[in-house]
Amino acid sequence: MDVYITKLRKLLKEDPNVAIINIHGKGYKLITPQVGEN
User: Which PROSITE patterns does the entry link to (predicted)?
Assistant: First the structure.
């Protein structure tokens, strides 16, 4: 799972609006801009 997340982070690193964060004891969360946000 860590390798998969690392590869995703590498692909998404060029976009500062997108991030994958680790929630300890829970898993991962994808952070993206909300619809309608500029």
Answer: OMPR_PHOB (PS51755)
